Amino acid sequence: MLSALAATGAQGGGVWLEHDGQMLGDYQLHLGNWLSDPEESRINEHLLRLAISTGRPQQATLPQHRALVLATPLGGRDDPEGVLAVAFSRDVAANLTSAEIQAAQETLAGIAELADDYFLRQQSRRLSADLEHWRLLDRFSSQLFEADGLLEVAYVAANRLPMVIGCDRAAIWRAEGRRFRPLAVTGVDSIDSRSATIIAGRQLTSMALVMNESLWEGLPRESDEPETADDLHPPQLCKAMDHYSEVTNARAYAVLALRNSQGRLVGAALLDWMSRCPDALEQARVTHAVDRVALAVTRSLPSRRLLRRLGIDSTPRSLLRLAMLLVGLAAVVWFMTRSIPFRLEARGELQPVVRQHVFSPAEGMVDRLFVGHGDRVERGTPLFQLRNLGWERELVALEGQRDVVRSRLEAIALELLSTRSSEALEKSERLAAEERQLKEQLQGVERQLELANQQLVQLRVVSPLDGKVVSWELRRDWESRQLRRGQMVLRIDDSDGPWQLELDLLESRFWHLRQQLAEGEVEVLFRLASEPELSRQGVVAELGARATVHEDGRSYLPVTVAVAGDQLPETLLAGATVNARLLCGRRTRAFVWFHQVYEFARRKLFL
After folding, report:
1. pLDDT < 70 regions, the chain
2. Greatest alpha-carbon span in the chain
């Protein structure tokens, strides 16, 4: 305005803006009482409206003060938003020529164009700022709704809100009745509920929102005389506000409610500004951002998340879907609680009850095999002959020692018969003593020979029972081979006697079988791998007392199953593979299908 007055030489002027069909004075300078007269005010308003409507410069003379008013539109000729006007006093207006008036109009038009450019740049900057804000807000909304779970939503909101709305710190609270629990605070990974800031924030949030009001404190007042907090809020809230301001030193803060679509309070947002106060535009942006936080928090609540994923809301179709879901769940529960037979699976072998392994009685080399695989033998039938060279050498040495002792005894006897004179009495006594010593030595050697012969007899191994020899490739594996003492060579099976199943059951399932045995007999259904189409029956006869670890790294316990003769196949093969199922009563279908999961949980949680 000063530039316009200096350039045109006018004594006063002003800027008027059009708002809702009325011309409102935005700024006036040195107009004095020129527009105090109603007639002159009406002429001036007509001039301003004419400039707005035509989009061209206008001029008029005020009748009482004889002042000349020049007006030019602002904001472009096509759609002007206001008018720039200057006024010349009576003395100056009387001396102005038409050329000077035209020059003043052109000067005003140039100043109006400069103002238009300035306003356009300001508007462009505002639009750019608004566009950037909305982009940030859209990105913020996407991050909120991509977050999984209430805590992650609160963490995103607390750490992204300062960048979106320009606050210095944000805290997200969850409403739990009349209390509020902190979920996330800007720049904090874990929240200490005993800290002074959290205690003061919880007190302030509870006081403000229990009274169903959002709180903006520290913002500029519209009136010239600011009201104190005591005039605006109840005493309890004022006390909480004073305590929070003292603890945080925040210059301005806001407590905003987070509500769901039904208006129920689900949480709160506590925002702090440390060095400045937000203006009206920022307050609107805060409201938009907090609304999105409220929607995200509502969607992330556990019950809401479940219903939302199931596609259920308050519409009749969704309620019907919920009813169908409940009926389906009831049907599934009924189906899973029905009892069915509970079977434990096990693998094992078919073996005769009476069988015995034959071991090497001593170290030696297999000198001769008398039987082969599948041969029937009787008790005492020779099976194989061992040869121990050490024992044979020892026997030869003992026999030689015996022969030497015997020869010496014969020599002493002849020498005693030839000794008759009294001079040989002393020699006779010496020979008699030597004879006694040699006889004792001979007795010891004969006892050693008897033991050696007994050992050699043990090298011929005989069958301990009647049965069949079971050992594949017996001659290839053992003929002319060196054996160790106690090394197993072959097995004798009584195939004509009773047979049984020897099963391996997982140790983790053993307690099911033991529990069923306490109630009564346990039946077993089994199939031979050689005859998988036939199902046979047996009864659990004995449980093993020692577990063994197999190649798969799991622990198994042996189970012996008695099998009746009519359940045996025509061709009996010792060691035939058996797949068996032990019938352990009836259990619910859920237990039968998921008992392995139950066993795993039981082992991990209770052992």
Report:
1. 1, 20, 26, 32-36, 64-65, 76-79, 123, 211-213, 219-232, 302-315, 318, 418-426, 606-607
2. 201
SS (H, E, C) 299-355: HHCHHHHHHHHCCCCCCHHHHHHHHHHHHHHHHHHHHHCCEEEEEEEEEEEEEECCE
Residue 531 in tokens: 């005859």
Between the alpha carbon of residue 251 and those of residues 216, 276, 519, the distances in Å are 11, 6, 78
Specify the pLDDT at position 185: 92
- Rounded to whole angstroms, the Cα distance separating 503 from 351 reads 10
10 Å CB burial of residue 2 (0-12, 13-18, 19+) is: exposed
Three-state helix/strand/coil letters over 78-93: CCCCEEEEEEECHHHH
Instruction: Provide the whole-model pTM.
Output: 0.42
- Whole-number Å distance between alpha carbons of 471 and 355: 13
The C-alpha atoms of residue 38 and residue 45 are separated, in whole angstroms, by 10
C-beta neighbour count of 355 within 10 angstroms: 17
Return d(Cα 235, Cα 233) in angstroms, integer: 7
CB 267 within 8 A of CB 258: yes
Q: Which of 512, 566, 508, 575 is nearest to 540 (CA)?
A: 512
Helix (H, G, I), strand (E, B) or coil at 284: helix
CA distance 59 to 70: 4
| Cα gap 441→402, rounded to integer Å | 9
- How far is the C-alpha of 485 from the C-alpha of 481, rounded, in Å? 13
Write out the H or E segment, with its range, that includes residue 282: helix 280-300
Which DSSP category does 34 fall into? T
| CA–CA dist 377, 358 (Å, integer) | 13
